[in-house]
């Protein structure tokens, strides 16, 4: 594959990605919606975060045909940390440390 | 309105204050972006034999994690340009939801600023932006700061990852494969304050897990967002 082809691919992919980003953002301000629908939009982030996390946990691959239980321990530790510390940063740090330590052991 | 907070934009927030607040808010997410970007850079080097310039250019201009990994895979399979364009659009289709949601909160921001702000919309900048909007404090400075930090983390990590190449053969060994999930898990849990939020999250989990099997990440995000949206519309 030549360098020119790769740069054409980059341009096409950049344009395709931009089409998902700008038009909806620009148009959203011209769409008038009822307070109920407006309220619905404020629940969208909860749905998005749940959707980014749930499949990763639910479909986490097995290791040698076995469930990787340390992964689920890390999920529990991260969840508890987030709940009590109210901080995504601590949730991430605690989860990564726990899973790294348990995998080491 | 259970758990609903108006997201009226506050024009008085100084640009610099908003920018600095965004930098500190998005920092933990930028760390997970960095680890992800290292893997992209290494893969572009090892599997696709990109040059350093091509790797950095793709991260700079496309700026879409899952989308870029997909492009690498499609290029290995000699996919056509059309296939790459359509796949990239579909993989990144969740940004349509983000744009619709954030665009409303960024109401008074001038259209020419929206043009470059929209380029920086990612899972991470959307996450912190929407949290800020809930407090009625989302402004141009904040969104610019969030987008810029994530962009810098993504592009620099791809550049470093490319150079490290073969050294990062197993990010899972250091628990880095869990960073992304942990960060978003933290964001989700911090947002759950009312019964209707838990209901929205529960339904979104079920919908996204079901949709993921057939439609991948974007399908899961659409399904999860739709489920939560419905709860929001019908909650009192």
UniProtKB/TrEMBL annotation, chain A:
Bilayer-crossing residues are 6-22, 43-63, 69-102
InterPro entries, alphabetized: Brnchd-chn_aa_trnsp_AzlD
Keyword entries, A-Z:
Membrane, Transmembrane, Transmembrane helix
Short name of one Pfam family: AzlD
Does the keyword Transmembrane helix feature in the UniProt annotation?
yes
Q: Which domain of life is it from?
A: Bacteria
Name-wise, this protein is AzlD domain-containing protein
Task: Give the organism the record lists.
Answer: Paenibacillus profundus
TrEMBL record, chain B:
Membrane topology according to the record: Multi-pass membrane protein
Source domain of life is: Bacteria
Q: Where are the transmembrane segments?
A: 26-44, 56-75, 81-102, 140-162, 174-191, 220-235
Q: Where is the signal peptide?
A: none
The UniProt keyword set, sorted, is:
Cell membrane, Membrane, Transmembrane, Transmembrane helix, Transport
Protein localization: Cell membrane
Record InterPro entries? Brnchd-chn_aa_trnsp_permease
What Pfam families does UniProt report for this protein, alphabetically? AzlC (PF03591)
Q: What is its main location?
A: membrane
Q: Which family does it belong to?
A: Belongs to the AzlC family.
Protein name per Swiss-Prot or TrEMBL: AzlC family ABC transporter permease
Its organism's taxonomic lineage begins at: Bacteria, Bacillati, Bacillota, Bacilli, Bacillales
